[in-house]
Amino acid sequence: MAESSVARPFDLIKLNLDEMVQVKLRGNRELVGKLHAYDQHMNMVLGNVTESVTVIDVDLLNHQATGANVVKRNIEMLFVRGDGVILVSPCAHPHDG
Amino acid sequence: MSSLILSEMLNGLVQVITNDGKVFTGRLRGIDQTTNLILENCHERMFSADEGVEEIRHGLYVIRGENVVLVGEIDEAKEEQTDLASVRAEPIMALVH
Amino acid sequence: MFFYSVFKTLVGKTVVVELKNDLAIQGTLVSVDQYLNIKLDHVSAVDPARYPHVATLKNSFIRGSVVRYVHLPASAIDTALLQDATRNEPGNR
Protein backbone atom coordinates (compact mmCIF):
# COMPACT_ATOMS: atom_id res chain seq x y z
CA MET A 1 0.00 0.00 0.00
CA ALA A 2 1.51 3.35 -1.04
CA GLU A 3 2.17 5.73 1.81
CA SER A 4 -0.03 8.81 1.47
CA SER A 5 1.12 12.16 2.90
CA VAL A 6 -1.22 13.06 5.72
CA ALA A 7 -2.59 16.51 5.17
CA ARG A 8 -2.70 18.24 8.54
CA PRO A 9 -5.31 20.96 8.97
CA PHE A 10 -2.60 23.63 8.87
CA ASP A 11 -1.35 22.27 5.53
CA LEU A 12 -4.80 23.03 4.16
CA ILE A 13 -4.67 26.57 5.54
CA LYS A 14 -1.23 27.04 3.96
CA LEU A 15 -2.78 26.25 0.56
CA ASN A 16 -5.07 29.26 1.05
CA LEU A 17 -2.29 31.86 1.38
CA ASP A 18 -2.93 34.69 -1.08
CA GLU A 19 -6.45 33.31 -1.65
CA MET A 20 -9.82 34.60 -0.53
CA VAL A 21 -11.00 32.87 2.62
CA GLN A 22 -14.07 32.90 4.76
CA VAL A 23 -13.43 32.97 8.50
CA LYS A 24 -16.16 32.27 11.00
CA LEU A 25 -15.59 33.84 14.41
CA ARG A 26 -17.21 33.69 17.83
CA GLY A 27 -20.01 36.19 18.37
CA ASN A 28 -21.87 35.62 15.07
CA ARG A 29 -19.12 37.27 13.07
CA GLU A 30 -17.83 36.34 9.65
CA LEU A 31 -14.91 37.68 7.69
CA VAL A 32 -14.19 37.34 4.00
CA GLY A 33 -10.79 38.47 2.84
CA LYS A 34 -7.41 37.55 1.40
CA LEU A 35 -5.25 35.45 3.68
CA HIS A 36 -1.79 37.01 4.02
CA ALA A 37 -0.47 35.38 7.18
CA TYR A 38 -1.35 32.94 9.96
CA ASP A 39 0.28 31.06 12.80
CA GLN A 40 -0.39 27.90 14.84
CA HIS A 41 -2.78 29.82 17.10
CA MET A 42 -4.83 30.76 14.01
CA ASN A 43 -3.90 34.39 14.48
CA MET A 44 -4.22 35.85 10.96
CA VAL A 45 -3.69 38.88 8.81
CA LEU A 46 -6.41 39.36 6.20
CA GLY A 47 -6.57 41.97 3.45
CA ASN A 48 -9.60 43.70 1.86
CA VAL A 49 -11.89 42.24 4.47
CA THR A 50 -15.65 42.39 4.69
CA GLU A 51 -16.88 41.72 8.21
CA SER A 52 -20.49 40.59 8.60
CA VAL A 53 -22.01 40.67 12.08
CA THR A 54 -25.38 38.99 12.52
CA VAL A 55 -27.52 40.67 15.15
CA ILE A 56 -30.59 38.74 16.36
CA ASP A 57 -33.48 40.97 17.35
CA VAL A 58 -35.34 39.58 20.31
CA ASP A 59 -38.77 40.55 21.59
CA LEU A 60 -37.99 40.97 25.28
CA LEU A 61 -41.52 40.20 26.43
CA ASN A 62 -42.03 36.98 24.49
CA HIS A 63 -38.36 35.98 24.45
CA GLN A 64 -38.74 35.29 20.75
CA ALA A 65 -36.42 36.14 17.92
CA THR A 66 -38.17 38.68 15.70
CA GLY A 67 -35.54 38.96 13.01
CA ALA A 68 -31.89 38.94 12.08
CA ASN A 69 -29.87 41.86 10.85
CA VAL A 70 -26.49 41.68 9.17
CA VAL A 71 -24.17 44.63 9.69
CA LYS A 72 -21.27 44.79 7.25
CA ARG A 73 -18.13 46.85 7.13
CA ASN A 74 -14.93 46.84 5.10
CA ILE A 75 -11.45 46.90 6.58
CA GLU A 76 -8.35 47.22 4.42
CA MET A 77 -5.91 45.23 6.56
CA LEU A 78 -6.82 43.29 9.66
CA PHE A 79 -5.03 41.23 12.30
CA VAL A 80 -7.41 38.67 13.77
CA ARG A 81 -6.65 37.04 17.10
CA GLY A 82 -6.80 33.26 16.78
CA ASP A 83 -8.74 32.48 19.93
CA GLY A 84 -11.90 33.80 18.32
CA VAL A 85 -11.60 31.72 15.16
CA ILE A 86 -14.08 28.88 14.66
CA LEU A 87 -13.39 27.93 11.06
CA VAL A 88 -11.41 28.91 7.98
CA SER A 89 -12.61 27.98 4.53
CA PRO A 90 -11.61 28.89 0.98
CA CYS A 91 -14.07 31.09 -0.94
CA ALA A 92 -15.28 29.92 -4.31
CA HIS A 93 -15.82 33.53 -5.39
CA PRO A 94 -14.54 36.83 -4.00
CA HIS A 95 -16.78 38.15 -1.22
CA ASP A 96 -18.81 35.00 -1.04
CA GLY A 97 -21.80 34.76 1.30
CA MET B 1 10.38 43.52 36.03
CA SER B 2 12.05 46.17 33.87
CA SER B 3 11.47 44.18 30.68
CA LEU B 4 7.70 44.17 31.11
CA ILE B 5 5.75 46.77 29.14
CA LEU B 6 3.77 47.68 32.26
CA SER B 7 6.91 48.52 34.22
CA GLU B 8 6.94 51.91 32.50
CA MET B 9 3.69 52.68 34.33
CA LEU B 10 4.86 51.62 37.79
CA ASN B 11 4.09 54.17 40.50
CA GLY B 12 2.01 56.16 38.05
CA LEU B 13 -1.65 57.11 38.33
CA VAL B 14 -3.49 54.60 36.16
CA GLN B 15 -6.93 53.55 35.11
CA VAL B 16 -7.76 49.86 34.81
CA ILE B 17 -10.69 48.33 32.96
CA THR B 18 -11.60 44.79 34.01
CA ASN B 19 -13.40 41.90 32.25
CA ASP B 20 -16.72 42.72 33.93
CA GLY B 21 -16.63 46.28 32.60
CA LYS B 22 -15.60 47.97 35.84
CA VAL B 23 -13.32 51.00 35.76
CA PHE B 24 -10.75 51.52 38.52
CA THR B 25 -8.22 54.25 39.15
CA GLY B 26 -5.26 54.11 41.48
CA ARG B 27 -1.50 54.19 41.75
CA LEU B 28 0.15 51.18 40.15
CA ARG B 29 2.46 49.65 42.72
CA GLY B 30 2.95 46.10 41.51
CA ILE B 31 2.89 44.04 38.31
CA ASP B 32 3.93 40.63 37.06
CA GLN B 33 4.08 38.62 33.81
CA THR B 34 0.46 37.52 34.04
CA THR B 35 -0.69 41.17 34.40
CA ASN B 36 -1.63 40.77 38.07
CA LEU B 37 -1.76 44.32 39.44
CA ILE B 38 -1.45 46.07 42.78
CA LEU B 39 -3.37 49.35 42.91
CA GLU B 40 -2.94 51.72 45.81
CA ASN B 41 -5.73 54.13 46.79
CA CYS B 42 -7.99 52.38 44.34
CA HIS B 43 -11.30 54.01 43.40
CA GLU B 44 -14.01 52.43 41.29
CA ARG B 45 -15.79 54.70 38.80
CA MET B 46 -19.39 53.84 38.07
CA PHE B 47 -20.79 55.35 34.90
CA SER B 48 -24.46 55.82 34.16
CA ALA B 49 -26.51 57.12 31.23
CA ASP B 50 -28.78 59.09 33.59
CA GLU B 51 -26.50 60.29 36.37
CA GLY B 52 -22.98 61.54 36.83
CA VAL B 53 -20.03 59.31 37.64
CA GLU B 54 -20.04 57.81 41.12
CA GLU B 55 -16.74 56.98 42.79
CA ILE B 56 -16.30 54.30 45.42
CA ARG B 57 -13.14 54.07 47.48
CA HIS B 58 -11.61 50.60 47.77
CA GLY B 59 -8.12 51.15 49.17
CA LEU B 60 -5.36 48.67 48.39
CA TYR B 61 -6.43 46.35 45.58
CA VAL B 62 -4.95 43.30 43.92
CA ILE B 63 -6.44 42.63 40.49
CA ARG B 64 -5.84 39.21 38.98
CA GLY B 65 -4.26 39.41 35.55
CA GLU B 66 -6.80 37.25 33.72
CA ASN B 67 -9.42 39.90 34.56
CA VAL B 68 -7.44 42.84 33.22
CA VAL B 69 -8.55 44.39 29.93
CA LEU B 70 -6.65 47.66 29.81
CA VAL B 71 -4.24 49.71 31.93
CA GLY B 72 -3.75 53.35 30.97
CA GLU B 73 -1.77 56.21 32.47
CA ILE B 74 -4.03 59.09 33.41
CA ASP B 75 -3.27 62.56 32.10
CA GLU B 76 -3.68 64.43 35.38
CA ALA B 77 -4.15 67.80 33.66
CA LYS B 78 -7.06 66.41 31.61
CA GLU B 79 -8.45 64.74 34.73
CA GLU B 80 -8.58 68.05 36.57
CA GLN B 81 -10.51 69.62 33.69
CA THR B 82 -13.06 66.81 33.71
CA ASP B 83 -16.25 67.32 35.66
CA LEU B 84 -17.18 63.73 36.45
CA ALA B 85 -20.62 64.81 37.65
CA SER B 86 -21.54 65.87 34.12
CA VAL B 87 -20.32 62.71 32.37
CA ARG B 88 -23.08 60.45 31.05
CA ALA B 89 -22.28 57.08 29.56
CA GLU B 90 -23.44 53.50 29.59
CA PRO B 91 -21.18 51.22 31.62
CA ILE B 92 -18.56 49.39 29.60
CA MET B 93 -19.75 45.97 28.45
CA ALA B 94 -18.46 42.79 30.01
CA LEU B 95 -15.90 40.97 27.91
CA VAL B 96 -17.11 38.15 25.69
CA HIS B 97 -14.24 35.76 24.92
CA MET C 1 6.76 34.45 17.92
CA PHE C 2 5.68 35.11 14.32
CA PHE C 3 3.12 37.86 14.87
CA TYR C 4 5.27 39.30 17.64
CA SER C 5 7.85 39.98 14.90
CA VAL C 6 5.17 41.34 12.58
CA PHE C 7 3.94 43.78 15.22
CA LYS C 8 7.48 44.90 16.02
CA THR C 9 7.78 46.11 12.41
CA LEU C 10 4.66 48.24 12.98
CA VAL C 11 5.99 50.19 15.99
CA GLY C 12 5.42 53.88 15.33
CA LYS C 13 2.38 53.28 13.12
CA THR C 14 -1.20 54.21 13.95
CA VAL C 15 -3.46 51.27 14.59
CA VAL C 16 -6.94 50.62 15.96
CA VAL C 17 -7.21 47.87 18.54
CA GLU C 18 -10.71 46.44 18.76
CA LEU C 19 -11.41 44.65 22.02
CA LYS C 20 -13.77 41.79 22.82
CA ASN C 21 -15.94 44.19 24.85
CA ASP C 22 -16.50 46.23 21.63
CA LEU C 23 -14.29 49.12 22.79
CA ALA C 24 -12.07 50.28 19.92
CA ILE C 25 -9.00 52.35 20.67
CA GLN C 26 -6.84 54.19 18.18
CA GLY C 27 -3.25 54.98 18.98
CA THR C 28 0.39 54.82 17.98
CA LEU C 29 1.94 51.40 18.52
CA VAL C 30 4.74 51.80 21.05
CA SER C 31 5.48 48.25 22.10
CA VAL C 32 4.39 44.64 21.88
CA ASP C 33 5.47 41.52 23.79
CA GLN C 34 5.41 37.76 23.28
CA TYR C 35 1.81 37.54 24.54
CA LEU C 36 0.88 40.19 21.95
CA ASN C 37 0.11 42.56 24.81
CA ILE C 38 0.13 45.99 23.17
CA LYS C 39 1.01 49.47 24.35
CA LEU C 40 -0.38 52.46 22.49
CA ASP C 41 0.48 56.16 22.88
CA HIS C 42 -1.78 59.11 21.99
CA VAL C 43 -4.85 57.03 22.54
CA SER C 44 -8.43 57.92 21.80
CA ALA C 45 -11.60 55.90 21.63
CA VAL C 46 -12.89 55.47 18.07
CA ASP C 47 -16.32 56.46 19.47
CA PRO C 48 -15.44 59.04 22.14
CA ALA C 49 -19.08 60.00 22.76
CA ARG C 50 -19.89 56.41 23.77
CA TYR C 51 -16.64 55.89 25.66
CA PRO C 52 -15.78 58.96 27.74
CA HIS C 53 -14.33 56.42 30.23
CA VAL C 54 -10.96 56.56 28.43
CA ALA C 55 -10.94 60.29 27.62
CA THR C 56 -8.21 61.20 30.11
CA LEU C 57 -5.74 58.45 29.24
CA LYS C 58 -2.28 59.35 27.89
CA ASN C 59 -1.50 55.84 26.79
CA SER C 60 -2.89 52.33 27.05
CA PHE C 61 -1.57 48.87 27.79
CA ILE C 62 -3.94 46.32 26.32
CA ARG C 63 -3.79 42.68 27.37
CA GLY C 64 -3.30 40.44 24.35
CA SER C 65 -6.05 38.02 25.36
CA VAL C 66 -8.76 40.71 25.12
CA VAL C 67 -7.97 41.72 21.55
CA ARG C 68 -10.47 40.81 18.83
CA TYR C 69 -8.84 42.68 15.91
CA VAL C 70 -6.05 45.11 15.20
CA HIS C 71 -6.77 47.33 12.19
CA LEU C 72 -3.43 47.78 10.44
CA PRO C 73 -2.29 50.49 8.04
CA ALA C 74 -2.33 48.73 4.67
CA SER C 75 0.55 50.88 3.44
CA ALA C 76 2.80 49.46 6.16
CA ILE C 77 2.19 45.86 5.14
CA ASP C 78 4.15 44.12 2.39
CA THR C 79 1.70 41.31 1.70
CA ALA C 80 4.09 39.29 -0.49
CA LEU C 81 6.76 39.43 2.21
CA LEU C 82 4.20 38.46 4.85
CA GLN C 83 3.02 35.47 2.84
CA ASP C 84 6.58 34.28 2.22
CA ALA C 85 7.48 34.70 5.87
CA THR C 86 4.39 32.68 6.81
CA ARG C 87 5.35 29.85 4.44
CA ASN C 88 8.89 29.78 5.74
CA GLU C 89 8.06 30.13 9.42
CA PRO C 90 9.12 26.93 11.22
CA GLY C 91 6.55 27.56 13.93
CA ASN C 92 3.72 27.29 11.39
CA ARG C 93 2.89 23.64 11.15
Topology:
The complex is a heterotrimer of chains A (97), B (97) and C (93).
Chain A: H1 9-15, E1 20-25, E2 29-38, E3 44-59, E4 64-80, E5 85-90
Antiparallel strand pairs in A: 1-2, 1-5, 2-3, 3-4
Chain B: E1 13-18, E2 23-31, E3 37-46, E4 54-63, E5 68-73, H1 76-81
Antiparallel strand pairs in B: 1-2, 1-5, 2-3, 3-4
Chain C: H1 2-8, E1 14-19, E2 24-32, E3 38-45, E4 59-62, E5 67-71, H2 79-88
Antiparallel strand pairs in C: 1-2, 1-5, 2-3, 3-4
Task: Explain the overall architecture.
The complex is a heterotrimer of chains A (97), B (97) and C (93). Helices cover 7% and strands 57% of the residues of chain A. Chain A is mostly beta strands and 97 residues long. Chain A has a single domain, classed as SH3 type barrels (Roll), CATH 2.30.30. A 5-stranded antiparallel beta sheet of chain A has the order 4-3-2-1-5, with no helix packed on it. Chain A is elongated, with a radius of gyration of 17 Å. Chain A starts with 8 loop residues before the first helix and ends in a 7-residue tail after the last strand. The model of chain A has no long low-confidence stretch (mean pLDDT 90). By secondary structure, chain B is mostly beta strands. Chain B has one domain (1-74): SH3 type barrels, CATH 2.30.30. In chain B, 6% of the residues lie in helices and 42% in strands. Chain B is built from 1 helix and 5 strands. In chain B, strand 3 (37-46) and strand 4 form a beta hairpin. The longest helix of chain B has 6 residues, at 76-81. Chain B is globular. With 93 residues, chain C is an alpha+beta fold. Chain C has a single domain (2-80), classed as SH3 type barrels (Roll), CATH 2.30.30.100. Chain C has 2 helices and 5 strands, in the order H-E-E-E-E-E-H. A 5-stranded antiparallel beta sheet of chain C has the order 4-3-2-1-5. In chain C, a hairpin with a 4-residue loop joins strand 1 (14-19) and strand 2. The two termini of chain C are 13 Å apart. The relative contact order of chain C is 0.23. Chains B and C meet through strand 5 of B and strand 4 of C. Chain B: It is found in: Nucleus. Chain B: Pfam families: LSM.
